[in-house]
Specification:
- The structure is a single chain.
- The protein is mainly beta and 162 residues long.
- The protein has a domain of 61 residues: Pnp Oxidase, Chain A (Roll).
- The strands form three sheets. It has a seven-stranded antiparallel sheet with strand order 3-2-6-9-10-5-4.
- The longest helix has 8 residues.
- 27% of the residues are buried.
Length: 162
């Protein structure tokens, strides 16, 4: 039955579920690298684990994976341009992006809502993706702002209700 699921229908149905937008970074060979990820999730508090999915055909993930660590930068609703800069394949998105090394050496972007620096805990095959779990080594946040959300092929924001 699963092999009969239409790809277009799959995308339409799952596109109704909002996801946050993150930038997963690493610094292979001393050069910053990043992947835009919308599948970021909290996995466990004890031990402190987070995870995300990345396509098995990614050319960037193997480079980041080789470092043994990564940093998840949670984008704000004011950073759709930053997300687009890394999603497109033209130009150098790092030229306009201020960053500093996290304790792991991965790029931490101080303008983001939060940054989660991790060592790679486990990588599991998951169909045409891999599921990456990271052991949290360091956390930081700016304390205010709305996260960048992706829904139905468009960016948006989340407003807290009081």
């Amino acid at each position: 039955m699963a092999d009969q699921i239409d790809g277009d229908l799959y995308r339409k149905v799952l596109g109704r579920y909002p996801t946050g937008v993150t930038l997963v970074t690493g610094c292979p060979d001393g050069e910053p690298a990043a992947i835009v990820i919308g599948s970021f999730v909290s996995v466990s508090m004890d031990p402190p684990l987070v995870g995300f999915l990345v396509g098995e055909d990614s050319s960037t993930w193997p480079r980041i994976e080789s470092t043994g660590s990564f940093c998840v930068n949670v984008l704000s609703d004011q950073q759709s341009g930053l997300s687009n800069a890394f999603f497109r394949r033209d130009g150098d998105p790092w030229a306009e992006t201020g960053w500093e090394p996290a304790p792991s050496g991965s790029p931490l972007i101080p303008a983001c809502l939060a940054s989660i620096d991790c060592s790679i805990h486990e990588v599991v095959d998951a169909g045409d993706h891999v599921f990456v779990m990271g052991l949290i080594e360091h956390l930081s946040h700016v304390g205010e702002g709305s996260p960048l959300v992706f829904l139905g092929g468009r960016y948006g924001s989340f407003t807290e209700f009081g």
